[in-house]
Amino acid sequence: MLLLMIAPLGIVCAYSLLTRGPYGGVMRPWSIGAYGRLADPLYATILVRSFWISGVTTTLCLVLAFPLALFISRSGRRKNLYLSLVILPFWTSFLIRTYAWMFLLRDTGLINTVLQTLHVVRQPLPLLYNDGAVILGLVYAYLPFAVLPLYATIERMDVTLLEAAADLGARPWQTMLRVMLPLAAPGFIAAGVLVFIPCLGSYLTPDLLGGGKTVLIGNLIQNQFTTARDWPFGAAASLALMALVMVLLAVALRRRREALL
Amino acid sequence: MAGVLELRGVSKQFPGHAAVSGVSLEVPQGEFFSLLGPSGCGKTTTLRLIAGFETPTSGAIFLNGQPIHELKPYERNVSTVFQNYALFPHLTVRGNIEFGLRRGPEVHEIARRVQTAIEMVRLSGKERRYPHQMSGGEKQRAALARSLVLEPDVLLLDEPLSALDPNLRKQVRGELKQLQRRVGITFLFVTHDQEEALSMSDRIAVMNAGRIEQVGTPEELYLTPASRFVASFLGEVNWIDGIGVRPESVRVSKCPPTGVPQRQATVTRSRFLGNRIHVESQCGSGEAVIAEVSRLEACFAAGEPVHLWWQASDELRFAD
After folding, report:
1. CATH fourth-level superfamily of A43-260
2. According to the model, what pLDDT value does residue B1 have?
3. Are residues B270 and B295 in contact, defined by beta-carbon separation less than 8 angstroms?
């Protein structure tokens, strides 16, 4: 625990308080200058953008994952097969899978080639290097993280409660809205957190599918450690992001607890 | 007497076993009717067939003369009190009771009916409680109110007292029976507890292995059981040379009685049960016989030779 969590965090914290070295890395003197630069309105824009893209991705993941989880939990003996299919993508590298999306979406990619051959479109559709492609890639990447907690919640649900709802005259869609969804709330919260937070910090998908145009907070941090060679600022930005996420999470959980009492 | 509920040759086949086989019965309006039998006898499946959670493999179910066995649960005017009560944990007592009324009458009419139901089950002042803040008895009453507020043609109760502690159970029996009389709704009560069925029901159907063994009033079932199964499931019975005799019909004495057929036996044990004593003895032919005697009668010690006799009219005879 100490070695895996506290130590790296301590190093990041220390880096954020140092001065940048000429070729990357850090040097003395100690300074809080990196944090000062976070106040720049440019970064606020990037932050808002990151929250927007992550929010849309999370919403889409939850909307897609619930019916999928419900379907799997109702599949009887095929449950385990479907569950392993959900997890199957993890067996190959995330980088390779993201490149595969590029091959599908680019102007000379599979989708555009097929559409042009069938004369559905004349010009290739701009499928790659935009926000849509980034969101598609993120939804693809994080959907399993939404499916699994929702599946677990649905599986644990007391079936007699659903029977009771039908018995009291609720039609299937009413049972879904008035009993299933409220009871699945903890699953939605877990799934939302599990998708939203990694989305916020993602840099690979926006980099490859967004073509560098879609700069998110994750890309900003990554750039500081690579091309910009400003390690203290990168460290400060990641700590600020982490603090923000933790505050949001605490607020969300408190809200939830208050709602229950 | 027209039946509000009628089952005609209803069977339910699950893969590998027949849960219910050819069950037919008719329940008149306003009756407290019990399905009694050991676990796995098909009584709960019968209830689930009436509620609509299962569809019969064959046969028909009628509610007020209309066939309902092909309707969905939400299309049938019957309501179920579940064994675990199945109260919605995210709703208050009031929310639970209102659940089935939302699509129905006007707003203040709903409020009035909910209030009446809450008062009827003595949950006034607890309307805002959530199920996890309630005792077992309160949950049971909330579940009852949630169903009764819909004024179902038949209320189905699936062992609703089995989750309560034994002292409360006896008290609730009386309350439940009283409530049923007051609202006049037909109750179909499923239980494995013979005492519960005997004390509350107008009529009882005894089920065994998916079939109905006998339907009758508690007195009929106890005094003139139609099969060995019914005789031994309701109350205790001694089997002597293929004839059944209830322990309370067996007389026991140390001196031989005059002018009646009798058997000689040896006392093996005397069991003190408070208001009565069970004298266990063994006949010459090897059969164990229990005789129920009053505490005020003579006491019998193990090893003592005794004489047993009973009235011929108290004998239970079966063809099988």
Report:
1. MetI-like (1.10.3720.10)
2. 47
3. no
User: In this predicted model, what pLDDT tens digit does every residue of B96-122 receive, in sequence order?
Assistant: 999 988 665 677 888 888 899 999 888
Residues of A in contact with B117 (CB under 8 A): none
User: What pLDDT score does A118 carry?
Assistant: 85
* Amino acid letter for position B204: I
| Burial annotation B64-78 (CB, 10 A radius, 16+ → b, else e) | eeeebbeeebbebeb
The whole-angstrom separation of Cα A50 and Cα B37 is 64
Q: Please give the Cα distance from A216 to A41 (Å, whole number).
A: 14
* CB spacing of B52 vs A166 below 8 angstroms: yes
The pair of three-digit structure tokens given for residue A225, joined into one six-digit string: 């450690």
In chain A, alpha helices (H): 7-16, 33-37, 41-73, 79-87, 94-105, 110-117, 131-156, 159-167, 172-175, 181-183, 185-200, 204-209, 217-225, 231-260
The residue ranking higher by pLDDT, A210 or B10, is B10
What mean pLDDT is predicted for residues A121-145? Answer: 83
Residue numbers in B near A166 (CB within 8 A): 52-53, 72-74
To the nearest whole Å, the CA of B86 is away from the closest chain A CA by: 5
Reduced to 3 states (helix: H, G, I; strand: E, B; else coil), residue B61 is: strand
From B285's Cα to the closest Cα of chain A, the distance in A is 53
Rounded Cα–Cα distance for residues A110 and B143 (Å): 59
Tell whether the torsion through CA atoms of B26, B29, B31 and B37 is positive or negative. Answer: positive
Separation in Å, CA of A245 to nearest CA in chain B: 28
What is the DSSP code (8-state) at residue A124?
Answer: P
Please count the residue pairs, one from chain A and one from chain B, whose beta carbons lie less than 8 angstroms apart.
54
Question: Which of B73, B84, B89 has the CB atom closest to A167's CB atom?
Answer: B73
Best residue of A153, A157, A167, A171 to probe chain B, by most B CBs closer than 10 Å: A167
Query: A170, B150: Cβ pair inside 8 Å?
Result: no
B89–A183 C-beta distance less than 8 A: yes
pTM: 0.81
Closest CA to B51 of B180, B157, B162: B157
For an interface test with B, which of A77, A153, A168, A183 has the most B Cβ atoms less than 10 Å from its Cβ?
A: A168
Those of residues 11-50 in A touching chain B at CB distance below 8 A are none
pLDDT(A151) > 80: yes
Pairwise CB contact (< 8 Å): B88 & A164: yes
CA dist B157 and B189 (Å) reads 5
Mind listing the pLDDT tens digit for each residue in B154-168? 999 999 998 888 888
CA dihedral of A61, A66, A71, A72, whole degrees rounded to 10:
70
Please name which of A64, A106, A121 lies closest in space to residue A208, comparing C-alpha atoms.
A106
